[in-house]
Amino acid sequence: MVKQPTLEVIKSDWRSILKIIGLRMAETGGCYITTSFMLSYVALAHVSTTKHVLWGTLIGSAIGLASHLVYGALSDRIGRRPVFMLGALFTIAFGIPMFMLINTGAIVMVIVAVALSLLFSHDPIFAVEASWFSEQFPANVRSSGISLGYNSASVIAGLLPIIATAMYGAFGWIGPALMFSAFGVISTCCALAMKETAPAALARKKRADNPERRYAA
User: Fold this and answer.
1) 3-state SS of 124-162?
2) The domain spanning residue 186 has which CATH number?
3) Distance (Å, rounded) from C-alpha 211 to C-alpha 197?
4) Containing domain of residue 65, as a range?
5) pTM
6) What distance in Å separates the CA atoms of residue 164 and residue 180, rounded to the nearest whole number?
7) pLDDT tens, residue by residue, 71-122
8) Are 38 and 102 in contact (CB under 8 A)?
9) Which one of 76, 91, 99, 216 has the lowest number of neighbouring Cβ atoms within 10 Å?
């Protein structure tokens, strides 16, 4: 029993807390750009209406009811990191294409851009966060560790739509587009530094490291 789990986890696992903050940038930051900021952007840039962004959000979220289950199950089979990296790398690649699709002003393109961002940037990351984050900490400080990392990232992400608006004012649409991709870079670097914890992936690694045991069976 730890009397002060928050202080204990900061002292012993502060690196994991910082990694979780970085890991959430692609998920939370990307989602805020795709939904919150995009509502303002389409109006400021006069390329579409907010209802088309909302339709894309609704459709993407509806598909997410199934995609989260698929990504979560996949992470149990192949590992947390590969599924997470799918979302992080897509975030890097999709920043400029997303805005180019929206800048066409075509209803279908706006809806597709928003829905794709949620489906392939947000969902694979969000689906593995609960398991991957909790598996980074000992059981006696797990709740405090997750809370510090998760909520600290939320505080930062809450400012991102404002920053994205300022970036748009200074550089045009390319500013928030590159900002979106930058979140993916941050999360990718943190994912590479975070240990894999999925039991199936660890078992495969153990078998690969011990080929004699594998063939002895």
Assistant:
1) HHHHHHHHHHHCCCCCCCHHHHHHHHHHHHHHHHCCHHH
2) 1.20.1250.20
3) 21
4) 5-216
5) 0.89
6) 9
7) 999 999 999 999 999 999 999 999 999 999 999 999 999 999 999 999 999 9
8) yes
9) 216
Give one word for 196, left, alpha or beta, with left for phi > 0 and alpha for psi -120 to 50.
beta
Number of domains in the chain: 1
What is the CA angle 113-114-115, rounded to 5?
95
End-to-end CA separation in angstroms for the chain: 41
Confidence of residue 211 (pLDDT cuts 50, 70, 90): low
How open is the CA angle 150-188-78, to the nearest 5 degrees?
A: 90
Q: What is the DSSP string of 56-80?
A: HHHHHHHHHHHHHHHHHHHHHHH-H
CA distance to 6, 44, 102, 127, 178, per residue, from 169 (Å):
40, 10, 17, 34, 14
Gap between the Cα atoms of 175 and 70, Å rounded: 33
